[in-house]
Amino acid sequence: MTQRDYYEILEVDRTASDEEIKKAYRQMALRHHPDRNPGDPEAEARFKEAAEAYEVLRDREKRAVYDRYGHAGLGGMGGGGFSSSEDIFSHFSDIFGDFLGFGGRARSGPRARQGEDLRYNLEITLQQAAKGDEITLKIPKKVLCPECSGSGAAAGSTPETCPQCGGRGQVRHSQGFFQISMPCPSCHGEGKIISNPCPRCKGAGVTRETRELAVRIPAGVDTGNRLRLRGEGEPGTLGGPPGDLYVLIMVKEDKVFQREGQNLLVDAAISFTQAALGATIEVPGLDGPLSIEIPKGTQNGELFRLSGGGLPYLNSQRVGDLLVEVKVLVPTRLSPRQEELLREFADLEQQKPLNKAKKMMKKVGKAMGLD
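^ thats the sequence. predicted structure below, dont judge the formating
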């Protein structure tokens, strides 16, 4: 008997995504499940056929082989061969286990759950971001109760099995063809009830404390970076692992430097005579003042780059640069002699600006005490 195309069975295109295939199979399985079609062998056959198709198409390796070679290429790779609807629902519990109760086995009891993750907003300076630092955080968090070790029961007693759900943590309600599992209202899904609660934690099994944690800030971090501290979140339940702590970095604005990625931008004010004649000036750096040569004829707003004067890149040997933007200052007050020299300079500019202007600028520089 010729096997039908798996894509045709699930009524999806060959380009369907994994999520589309999963959704199509779920709808197909619900439509043809034997509990909804009692005494219908054709529906049962469709149900098993859909399960076989999904078993292949949900696996990327099997799907790639099937797309290339068809059914013949799947020999020896497994897939299909489900003996009953219970076998199918057990096999695909990721789809049906937490939603439907029919056709599968009930869970033997509540499952362990991982604790909640925590977030801490940490504000640091630009210097700390550039050099790295170790900072002690004070984290308010839940911890297992030291008196009852997290059981929630007072000393000398233990949690009791919930009589309503029998310790499963779930109760079932029938709705037509479906059986829907819901958390037990008596034990809230825990499977246990506490008749004699711990006086310290009032039966919760956890208390709130403030813990101190040392966090290493790597050099080069920027606003928005996250540090993950595994196991430093809230404690798990029923023996589950604790959650994680995420430290969200926020770098404060600096009064001197402006950050552009791993580069730093700083303003340097110079006089108009320094801009015209050239000069050696000092600019602020992360580790102290740095010298920079201002060439003759520098214009307002020009950028000069000092390689390696910025911040390091995370997990790299590279370092950003320091960008120096020149701001040429125009004097607002002139002495009579300075004004006389500048007027003479202005006259020379109109006559022979390229020859005599430079000599005149030197005189101006001397008169202003900048030579």
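The longest strand covers residues 133-144.
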